[in-house]
Structures are given as C-alpha cells and as structure tokens.
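Dear support,

Our group has been running a series of protein-ligand predictions, and this particular one with adenosine-5'-triphosphate is the one our PI (initials K.S.) wants archived with full inputs and outputs. We had some confusion internally about which version of the output was final, so please treat the block below as the authoritative record. The input we submitted was:
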Amino acid sequence: MIELVGVSKKYGSFTALHEVDLEIEQGEFIAILGPSGCGKTTLLKLLAGFMGPTDGFIVMDDSTVASAKRVTPPEKRNIGMVFQSFALWPHMTIADHIKFPLDHHPNRKKESRQEVQERMGEVLRLVGLDSFSDRYPSELSGGQKQRVALARAIAPKPNLMLMDEPFSALDVELRMEMRKEIQKLHRETGASIVFVTHDQGEALAIADRIVVMNQGRIEQIASPEMIYTRPETEFVATFVGKCNLVKGQWQDGSFIPKINPHCLWPDLGVAKTFKKNGIYPVRPEQLQLSMVALNGVHGRVTFVQYQGHEIHYTVEISGETWTVHESVYSPRFYVGDEVTVGLKKAVKPEKVLVSN
Ligand code: ATP
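Confirmed final output from the archive:
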C-alpha cells in the first residue's frame, strides 16, 4: 500500500501540488488524469523519488520514503518506470535492455546466469518480443520500442509501475493495442500501476480508479464509471465527457431548467455541489433532439459534426449552448433547424464497472 499524506510541492514560489492525499492499494491500477500543467508529472516524480515534497510525506509498504527532510532515492525503491519517450539505449540490444535491470535493480538478489536468462525469456515472451532479442532499438517500430520499455520496467518484478503518458508517441491503433497489453501485464504481474495521462478515454478504459487533477489539486477520486456518471465538480463534469451544465432550480428532488419551467428532470445521482449551485450536469448522449414540440426546451441547431457512429449537434437555446450526441440511426437535423431538446429516459447506474 502507498499513501500520500498532505503532500505539497513548490517550485520556488509556485505551488505545483496542494496538500494531496491519496491511498493506492497493492495491485491497483490508478490513472492520474488532468490537463497540461495540473501537476501529474510532479506527482509521479515524487512517487519515483526524483525529488522530495515541500510538505507532507509518502509511505510505501509501511516505511516513510519521502518527507520535506528525507527522500529515499529511486534506486532504493522497488519501482519500474516507463516514459513517453521510451528512453531506450541505442547501443544496447533488446536482450541487454532486459538484462540490465535484472543485474542492477534493488529488488533482485544475486542470481545465477541461468535464472537471469530464464527471466529474460519470460519477459520477452510476455510482451511478444522473444524473436527480437538480438535487435537494436533503431531496428524496431514505435510499438515494439514501447514494448521493450515495458519489458525492461517489469523484468525485476517491481511492486509499483510508474508510467508517464507512455503511449502518446504512438498512433491510435497502436495505443489501443498497447492499452490491452498493459492491462494484460497488470493482471499477470500484480504490480500497482500509476499511469499519467491527459486522455480521458484512455483513463476511463484502463484504470480501476481515476484521480482527476486540476491546478495542483485533486478534484475527484473514483472508479471510471463513477467519474463519468457522477462527477462531483464542474471541472470533472466538463473535463471528462464534456457535460452540459444546465442552469435551473432543484425542487423536491427534481430539476426545473431555467429556460423551460414546464420540464421536470429526475435526479440521477447529481452531486450536492451542483444542487447547491442550481445546475444539472447532463452528458451530450443523455439528450435527444426532436421536431419542435409543445413541451420541451426549444433551440436552433448551429453546428453539425458527423463522427461515424454519432452525429454531434451544437444547439443554441436562449443564449446557452448545448451539445447533443445522437446515433447516426436517429432522425437527422441540419444547421438552422428549430428543434426541441429533451432528456432521454436514463438509467441510474447501480453497479460500478471495473475495466480490468
Ligand atoms: P503536462 O501534461 O503538460 O506534462 P503536468 O500535469 O504533468 O503537465 P507538471 O509537469 O507536473 O504538469 O507541472 C505542474 C506545474 O509545475 C506546471 O505549471 C509547470 O510549469 C510547473 N513546473 C514543473 N516543473 C517545474 C520546475 N522544475 N520549475 C518550475 N516550475 C515547474
């Protein structure tokens, strides 16, 4: 188990992390999600031991590894790291890349040549590179290079894997493939993973829990499904899945949109903060368009974007702009159409899905 308690980090007078509290269970897959500059890498560097916190402390397996006074360096922690840039050594073969941490990682006791060879074979097979062991990094594709970086990190069986945007240099197809690869490795190694990304789709697809960060603070920590269906702050609602924040009034557990007091929307687990501020967060796919009807919220379509499986509409409604996602099989609307926007019959999520 890893615990961050009141961890702050300042660079000079700038505070990059504000009193972060976080617990990571052994074997858990955590995604740190947030926009550029929110402090994701800073958090990862503190977990790795590249630097110490300005305040607070970090506990790993019952011992304090970092405080303002003392920091256990990375080579004394049982961690593996994978970076966006792969960071491979051009003069070393793939086999040498895997052998190096087996010879030098603090988690490895002195092993016989045969044991090292066996582990090398095992790890290369796991990432599907057993026939590439004599090649150099320049002789590999981007995806294969990232697999070498993964294999090197998992070879010494670390307790904790730290990954900083490990797939951002890869194309979309390869990213999807590598996500599955990581999930498979996670199941097979049992290591905890802290995975930094600014891609919400990636975080939703891959993690047991997502930590959403904004300006050096944690906004929400929850399972992907809870983050998506029950955001607790306006930032989470709009950063993950682009919610419409509809203004109105909460009355006896139902919501009345300001722009049509005749509508009554049900409470599908809306967080207290929204209720207090008279807001109903609604996902674009929870809304539907129809021809102008007497009852509903009236608006005009101002943009239409075809997305293959969906059509994305922008609708102007009494000075507010709403986004509506409809299936391509729904009736089509065009720029300038007068429409009615309604809430689809929605189901309250009761069971929390875990992606692994
Ligand atoms: P990105 O997604 O762009 O990599 P990030 O969420 O990982 O961003 P960090 O790299 O943790 O963000 O940076 C957090 C904030 O701290 C940023 O405003 C950044 O400019 C600042 N920062 C990071 N490193 C330093 C440093 N060594 N000195 C001063 N400021 C820094």
